[in-house]
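Morning!

As promised:
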Amino acid sequence: LIDFCGIELAHPIVNGSGTFDAIAARRTFGDALLADFPFAAFVSKTVTLEPRQGNPPPRLWEQPAGLINSIGLPNRGLHGYLEHDLPALAELPVPLIVNVMGFTRAEVGELVAAFAERVEVAALELNVSCPNVESGLIMGADPSETAALLEHIRPLTAKPLIVKLTPNATDVGAVAAAAEGAGADAVSLINTLRGMALDPRTREPWLGGGTGGVSGPAVRAIALAQVREVASRVTVPVVGMGGVQRGRDADDLLRAGAALVAVGTESFRDPRAGERVAGELADLISKRSETAPETGATETPKTWVK
Amino acid sequence: VSTVTSSRRTPAPFGRRGGVIEANRAAGAYRVLEVADPAGPAPRPGQFYMLAATERWGGGDEERPFLPRAFSFLRAGDGRLEFLLEDVGPGTHRLAELEPGDGLWLTGPLGIGFARPEDGRAPVLVGGGIGIVPLAGWQDEVGGPALLGFRSAAHAEAAALLADPDVATDDGSVGHHGPVTDLLGESLDADPDAVVYACGPPAMLEAVRALCAGRGVPAQLAMESGMACGFGACFGCVVPTREGYVRLCLDGPVLDAADLDTALVPGTGH
């Protein structure tokens, strides 16, 4: 068992927020989802105060080794989430982490306060990849914005607070350090990187939202570098994610300093990717400890050159 | 939360599973893939699968295809599934070159299929191009004339996959010269007490929707939208309905035409 902010987890693989809808998956796959739940904890899709329809289609573009999405955080809003989603998610066999986003500090505070006493909720994750409409700054792109947000909401809950960092920041390490300094219990990264695609026929932006977030193996190297940088700047646990497809990718992020690893886009390709990655990771670790504790490898690993 | 097994929907086993290509044969301009899927349940017509080759899916030109691709099944039975495809992009290109014995990842059956005719209405099936696919299994169950439109004579050869097809082609090389909705108009003139089941390109679906709406004829449209996952995770495949955006993979791909203001959705078709 792994201890993450006082939460016991069966293994180190969770899902990235917004990459797995456990309610829709149960509708599709039935109770087999609960029997073989692929993640050690479930991170739900971002909840906002008011309901959101999300961005107009098209919302997806397949790109080399990945995907650009412009979904726009559709959700039922806080009231709808508490009434419809939370009771269903409470039936999952793993701890629930609720991801929230607000457009002002007061909004984030209202969301955090609404979950502060909910026994169904193990922890809260803050999506800070949106602008503070009062300052115009992306909350998670600036250390002082992030610190001010944490100072506002830290007194509102005793539950672990995870800050989901945006990679679209000048100095992600500084933002992470500011979050820790203002009371964050953990940080998670990376969120998607801003990107775009043109419709090959019209030469106009393809995505309904204009730009979108790039994910998948295309961002894996960026995730590894940012996780390593952030882990060197904070003492709180780091949830690493970005392009994880196999146990080896998760192993790399752990080596870079992550305490947990999230699987995101790969779940689109393989609904049980989380469980598969956890199994591959466990195999890697056990083989390494059995056979070659010094080099950390069972056979000579291949480099890229040939 | 409940798992609904109904006449329109068979739930999928959890996760992707390995199928094996048994045959890959030409059907005019298309290919029919026959896949052994002994572990899979029997799907309902209109439901779909996410497909990806187990080898060399990713790593080709531009590292694509990367995501699995959504396909309605043509026919199913005895642990076998049939899919129809045309080589129009990196995903269909890779699938089109698969040979007997090659592996295929399958997730499904997914989504909600067609609803049976009500009030004694006679089914009329309208298909355009590759959109004839979900109509084949449905015709096996409910019967009805198949009005099928194609670009060319080579594409129109696939009409033989359905029973007693009435064909229209854009170039007039086979059957009626003009859109398949011409045939639908004639059919509804003769028997307005119909229910229309349609699948095809967005412009055809919109023409069917408008024609049926104008005549007060119920219609069910099997739609397509780019999707990453097929099971509600990515929120990418939404289409606007009168109730707001719905995920086509969960609440479709068959939608009641009365719920739509238009079947022309940005990003659909290819």
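Chain B has a mean pLDDT of 94.

Hope this helps with the figure draft.
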